[in-house]
Amino acid sequence: AFWMAAGAFGHAVNVTVGGTTHTLNRYVSDWPLPRPESFLEDAATVADAGLAPGSAAAQRLLRDIAAGAETGWDFSSRWFRDGEHQDTIRTSDVLPVDLNAVLCRVERNLAALASAVGDAAASQRYTAAAAARVAAMEAVMWDEARGQWFDVVASTGARSTDEALSNFSPLWAHAYDSGNATRR
After folding, report:
1. Which residues share a beta bridge with 25?
2. What is the pLDDT along the chain (184 residues), one digit of tens a residue?
């Protein structure tokens, strides 16, 4: 339920491509304050951005900083709108390839575990979830011309242009259509 909750602070985001709505996941936080472990740095980022402490814009920035820390890629340029400055962070607006690949692998592992313990209904549910995620990643994140998956900005549907190791995480997770010879 944690990863599949939708809404302003939910981790699941619907994206429509070609008339089909797909669900992918993102990092997001509802922590609108400087992080306790980095209070001074976060307060300085708000000040450097020219934002009033406590303003809606400052709270949005702090939420995205907290979400960036959640990713394990703190503070990679992949989260920055301009690719350079932390005060342009937009973590909650990015649908990361690697997160979705990991979740696909988890869904497949849960399907196998459910099958092993004789819970056919749960196995089918997780198998269907993994198949839906693969279809979503292929439709939304895969760039045929460049031969790799890319993070997607949820609000615009634009794919990132950054080439990164995370773009290839679906290969590790087997989060791709294995019938497609270009991705085997």
Report:
1. 12
2. 899 999 999 999 999 999 999 999 999 999 999 999 999 999 999 999 999 999 999 999 999 999 999 999 888 899 999 999 999 999 999 999 999 999 999 999 999 999 999 999 999 999 999 999 999 999 999 999 999 999 999 999 999 999 999 999 999 999 998 877 665 5
What residues contact residue 84 under an 8 Å CB cut-off, 6+ apart? 77
Residue 142, strand partner residues = 149
Residue type, position 129, single letter? A
From the number of C-beta atoms within 10 Å of its C-beta (0-12, 13-18, 19+), residue 118 rates as: exposed
pTM, rounded to two decimals = 0.94
Which of 128, 129, 95 is CA-nearest to residue 14?
A: 95
Degrees to nearest 5, angle at CA 116 with 110 and 122: 45
> What is d(CA 124, CA 126) in angstroms, rounded to the nearest whole number?
6
What value, to the nearest 5°, has the Cα angle with vertex 78 and ends 16 and 14?
A: 15
